[in-house]
Amino acid sequence: MDNPDQYRPLTPEELGGRLSTVPAIAERIGSDPSQWQVREVGDGNLNLVFIVEGPKGAVIVKQALPYVRLVGDSWPLPLYRAFYENNALVRQAQRDPGAVPEVHHFDEAQALIVMEFLSPHRILRRKLIDGERVDGLGSFLGRFCARTAFRGSELSMKSADKKKDVGLFSGNVEIPAITEALVFTDPYYDAEMNHHTEGLDPVVDGLRGDAKLKARVQHLLMKFASNTETMVHGDLHSGSIMSTDRESKVIDPEFVQYGPMGFDLGMLVANFLMAYFSQPAHRSAAELAGYQDWILSVIDEVFATFEAEFRHLWATERTGMLYPAALFEDQGQSSEAACLALLAEIRAEAYGFCGIEMHRRTLSLAHNADFEDIRDTDLKRRLEARNLAMGAELVHTSEALGSPERLLDLARRFNAKDIP
Amino acid sequence: MDNPDQYRPLTPEELGGRLSTVPAIAERIGSDPSQWQVREVGDGNLNLVFIVEGPKGAVIVKQALPYVRLVGDSWPLPLYRAFYENNALVRQAQRDPGAVPEVHHFDEAQALIVMEFLSPHRILRRKLIDGERVDGLGSFLGRFCARTAFRGSELSMKSADKKKDVGLFSGNVEIPAITEALVFTDPYYDAEMNHHTEGLDPVVDGLRGDAKLKARVQHLLMKFASNTETMVHGDLHSGSIMSTDRESKVIDPEFVQYGPMGFDLGMLVANFLMAYFSQPAHRSAAELAGYQDWILSVIDEVFATFEAEFRHLWATERTGMLYPAALFEDQGQSSEAACLALLAEIRAEAYGFCGIEMHRRTLSLAHNADFEDIRDTDLKRRLEARNLAMGAELVHTSEALGSPERLLDLARRFNAKDIP
Questions:
Q1: DSSP assignments along A320-358, one per residue
Q2: ipTM, interface predicted TM-score of the complex
């Protein structure tokens, strides 16, 4: 290498030389790189991903690429996202210990993170398509969302620390811009990179013709782009979760930003709802109802755990400047009603973000495998139409909807609906 | 001076040497400092303020002090606020040309801003106490609030520029912390620096005993501290406005931060309402009703102009990523309803911030002369009680209140009320 600090995409051959001097890695996999085996396993879209195995164990090496290769041509994307991803992983590990892969080493010049190798974990989206269940999934995810939302906000953090962090993450401009365009705007007009299933036009035209819906979506975009309540994962879908039968981890927070407390929750639930609506294409008649019920039970558990954990943290860790005990408990007054009002607001926002995510995953650039893997185009269209219609209902009624039980009722209703 | 770049509070004698080499100043007042006259005119609380007069004209020199001298002892305050104030003045001048004093020179090392000398302008608060009227005041202030709110947001700005600016201003931590404590929290418990008029205890106890009110206030604090919709002045009261009989300027944006679009509007209106409620102590019976009506007409004009100007900018300058024409006009759909919904939300937030400002100015550390100049303690108490009661009503009903006409009705009702 001419200059070891100059970024370049690394080859499996170069990795040994680069990493063998890092004690944290040697400790985990052995110190002699000649005994390491290195495999590139990523899809090369945004990142190179290597598994490095040695006599004592294995680690994952993730290196950012300076472009996205989603659409034939490449789309430049700053390498600094690895810096933000590393910062996000460190904070998430503090706020919900064990929920994210452990970071062993970060190399800023090479935009490279060495982290815990998760095995035998699989990407949750694939498990949902394959009909696999994960014990404790809903409570793990609800807890993760509650802990990161609460502990990253001024309910918990010192304001000076939180504001400094907002300044740090405000440098991450290009990545949120992707979400702002692809999630909140492109689905609602004829944007260049959009695509959707044949036959969906009437439903799509209905959404794009609904000015009130689009105004509500843009209002949520304003909240997403101008709200620094807490540090959000920013891309918490079932492809950012890896699970075994009984353990889960949240990965890939490169879309980290400060944002609304309900954002991750809404994106997450949307992806479970899409898994739910897509099931008729993936399950036999005998398994379908049972597995769909299980997915809804996971959503229910996500909300129940989120709210229970948030209330627990409110009662035990409310050390920030917001809703201070000086105004409530120290004056002999309960702050429980204030907590419940805030939770109702977070839930309503989550429903809105959820509806939007359901739209963009079938209309905008990045679709998801739950629907994309369906070969029968007509079935795909019918299932996507249910998903789109429920998304619109959520955007329109997010404040009025109320308890998660009503969300599940809506899902059951749209799942039984044939949309022309 | 040993090191000219080392900060120290300057004396009138030193100013000539410091400023005579700056062409922008020489051009305005003359280039020979031996012909200049320098007077220190500030109250020395947070800043030194000098008037520098030469043969060709005069300029104002404002130098930040590293402390606040509000309460006997000093309270350290970072000098970097002059940097933010200068940045704010530059942006406000771009967004509403002529609304703020022109900046001639900024010296970061000395935390010193040289700017336009306003004459024969007087501080608006004093004019309101003295019963003077200012032509066009409401429309000037409504326009200033609308232009700075709209043009500093992602309705207008490129997202990358706006986010970079959020990063820049996020360094201003100590100043917003003053607002967070003194405005949103201290009034509602027995905070150390609080003071209030003798006899007000029953009203104050009522506010502090109202957990629902405090929860609503803290919810607005969360919005204030975690919302980066636009660059706000941050301290837009009648002491931050200078007027002649027909011209006004907005000064002193050292509390600048990114915040909610309705914040400046709410603080401003609160200060007009306090001027209104205090008038019985300052006017003769013959003048009272007429002058109070004039103050209410200014508030009415502030809202009417804010909304008209915001709608005008929405129609003509909506060049940011929010509510893009691609989703509305380009599809043959009006976005007017979306604009009106956003305006209704801004107004509701403004009412809430307004109620809080009315509380803090009679209960927390920094009171205002409208009430403080009243010698008759019992009259003062009765007028402040009206003000506090209306503030509580506004915090409780901000979303439901609706049009500004209903705000004015409320003011008239509380102005006629005797609160025990």
A1: SSSS-GGGTGGGT---HHHHHHHHHHHHHHHHHHHHHHH
A2: 0.95
